[in-house]
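pinned: reference chain
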Amino acid sequence: MAVLGQSVSGRIACLLLLFVATAGCRSGPEQWGPFRGRIVDAETGAPVPGAHFMVSWERDNPNPVHWTQSFYDAQEAVTDADGRFEIPRQRRFFTVLVSTPRFDAFAPGYVAESSEVTPRGGQPYVDATILKMRRLETRDEQCQHQPFGVGGLFPKSEVPTFSAAVDDYVDQLACNR
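pinned: its structure tokens
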């Protein structure tokens, strides 16, 4: 009987360990893609070719004082002539405490204005999504809305095309000169 008790308690311990290990896991299309959409000019509806799109994830790290965040992963894409982009589904197996994805878009001379998801209430960039970007007409307006680039939790080496496009644009604007 003691052997049976140890076997049951061992199974319970394994199940508890499995539950704790996967409690922070997020899965499904809303977490790992594929992510796709179309970037268009907000005023004209024309596609914005060559725009950059990035999805990134952070890991929430517990510590005794407060939770901290660190970089987990990032993927990027550039829009085609019709303003469309796609980031393939990411295969992840151990994603304890990984945050929901963050989406960023960049196109020189534009600022993101709004997005529309079809069907209404659908998951952004998992379901059909149109991101509308407003053209910045003047240099002053471009300087006011200049991107700050990639950094902090998102290493430039993880999204080199997105980072280079933002850095080149900021250098060309030379707003601080």
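why pinned: The first strand starts at residue 35 and ends at 41. The beta strands are 35-41, 52-61, 68-78, 84-87, 102-106, 110-118, 128-135.
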